[in-house]
Amino acid sequence: MSHTQNLAELLSGIKYEDLPASVIEQVKRLTIHTVGVSVASSPISTTKTAIKLAEANGGKEEATIWGGHGKKVPAELAAFANATQADVLDWEDCSWTGHPSAGAIAAAFTVAEARHKSGKDYITAVAAAYEGYQRVASSVSPSRNYLKNHSWGLSSWQIFGSTFAAAKLFGLDADKTNQAVGATVYATPVAVGLHAEGPAKSDIYHFAHGTDAYSGIFAAKIAEAGFDNGKDYLDGENGYWSTVSDQHDDAWFRRKLREDNWLINETYLKHWPANMWIQTPLEILDAIYKEHPFKAEEVEEIVLTPITNLTAPYYGDTAKTTLDAQFNASFCFAAYILNPVPDASWFTEDQLDRKEILELAKKFREEGDTYTPRDNFDVFKERDFPEMTVKVTLNDGTVLEKSLAYPKGHPLNNTTLEEEYDLFRRITTPFIGAEAAEEFIKAIDSLENVKDIADISSSLNLK
Question: pLDDT tens, 164-216?
C-alpha cells in the first residue's frame, strides 16, 4: 500500500467512538479558542477586507462568517474569511509545523454548517484533520541546510488541514481521500514563506491561511465529484515533499494511532496575540508585572535571554506591519506594558506607529545564545520547550527577573475549558454581545449533543 493510501485509509476510518475523551475536549478547546480570537480580530483591517471579499462574492447561502453581518456565503468563501481572521492576531494554535486550526477548525466548522452535520461529525473531522495535517507537514520537514537558501513551507502544507476536514465531512472513502490529496498538491502555494524574508513581514501571510482553507475544501469537492488519476501524490521521489523540502520521512504515514499519541493533543494554544516564540517572554513579563506592577516611564531596560532571532531586535527598524509587530519581542513587550490586557487594540493601525511604543521598544535588548525558530520547533517536537529569561531593570535600580519553560497553553501546561470560555467571553462580547457569547459557550460545552452545527452559528454575527 502506498503511503498516501495508508494515510487515507487511516483518516477515512476514524470514527467518533475511536476518540479518547482528551481528544474530544481538545477539539472543544481549539474550537472556542480559534473562533474567539477570530471574532476578536474584528477591528483589524485585514479581517474587514477578508469579510468584505467573502460577502461581496457570495453565492449559495451555506455558512456563516464569524464576526460577519449575518450574510451566509458558500462554504469555501466562509472558510476563506474565517481562516484569514483566525491568523490575523497570531493568537490561534501552533504545532511544531504551523497553525493547524486556521485550516482544520475554519474548514470543518463551515463545511459542517453547510452540510448540516452534527457535533459528533464535526469533532471527528477536526481530530482526523489534525492527524492528517501534522503527519504530512512533519513528513516533509526540510533539513537545516535546505533552509539556508529556501523558506520554510508553512503556507504550503497549511492547506492539508482544510482538505482532510472537508474530506471527512463529505464522507469520502479512502480512495477518494487519496484523490483529494492529489488535487490538494496541485493547489498548494509554491511561493511559500516569503513573508519571513528580511526585516519587513507582509500581512499577505494572514490571507494565505484563508486561501489555503478555500482551496482545501475545493480540492475535497473535486474528489467528491469523481476526479481520478491523481493518486499517491505523497509518494516517490517526485512526491509532494520534493516541492518544499530536500528530504522526507515516510515513517509519519505508518505511525499507529494509540490512545495517548493523537497529534491534536500536541498542539499549543497561544496565550498571547504574538508569534509562537514570544509567548514565553510575554508570560514571564506578565508574571513579573503581576508581582511588581510598574509604569512605562519607570523602565530603564528589558533584557530577553536567549536571542529569539525573529525580526529586527528593535521594532522601529521594521516596516511596522501587523506581522512585524506580532513577530517582534520589543513591540509586544511595549504593547503589554502599555496595555497588559491584550486584545486587537495591540495591533490597530494607529498602534503600529505609536510614539510611546517606539520609545519603550528602544529599551529592549536580547543577549545570550541565538536560537532560530527551527531550533525551538525541534525542542517542541520532542515534547519539551525552550526555557527563557526576562530581566526588567527599573530606573531606581530595582531588578525584576524570572525564567520559564512551559507557558500557559503548552501541552504540559494546558488551558482548561473554563479558562478558554473566560477568554472567549472577554474578547468576543464587545462584538457579538454577552448573550450570544454565552450561547456559543453553552453549545461548545455540549458539542457532542449538537444535532446540526448550523443551529449554533448564528450567535457569531456582529451585534
Answer: 999 999 999 999 999 999 999 999 987 676 666 566 788 899 999 999 999 99
HSE of 208, CA atoms in CB hemisphere, 13 A: 21
Residue 307, SS3 per DSSP: strand
- Rounded distance between C-alpha atoms, residue 212 and residue 83, angstroms: 8
Query: Can you spell out the DSSP letters for 173-235?
Result: -HHHHHHHHHHHHHHS-SS-SGGGSSS---THHHHHHHHHHHHHHHHHHHHHTT--S---TTS
Where residue 314 falls (left for φ over 0; alpha for ψ -120 to 50; beta otherwise) is: beta
Residue whose C-alpha cell reads 531588578 in the numeric block: 399
The DSSP secondary-structure symbol of 370 reads B
300 φ, ψ to 5°? -95, -40
Count the Cβ atoms, other than its own, within 10 Å of residue 268: 22
Q: In what order do the strands lie in the sheet with 399-404?
A: 364-366, 299-305, 388-394, 399-404
At residue 362, what are phi and psi to the nearest 5 degrees?
-65, -20
Nearest alpha carbon to residue 424 among 34, 44, 12, 18: 34
Report CA-CA distances (Å) from 150 to 144, 153, 410: 10, 9, 29
Count of alpha carbons within 13 angstroms of residue 421, beta-carbon side: 15
Global pTM value: 0.97
Task: Kindly report the three-state secondary structure assignment for every residue of 383-413.
Answer: CCCCCEEEEEEECCCCEEEEEECCCCCCHHH
The distance between the two most distant Cα atoms of the chain, rounded to a whole number of Å, is: 72
User: Coil, strand, or helix at residue 100?
Assistant: helix
Question: At 363, is the secondary structure helix, strand, or coil?
Answer: coil
The pLDDT tens digits of the residues spanning 292-339 come to 999 999 999 999 999 987 777 899 998 899 999 999 999 999 999 999
With beta carbons less than 8 A apart as the criterion, state whether 207 and 259 touch.
no
State how far Cα 333 lies from the chain centre: 21
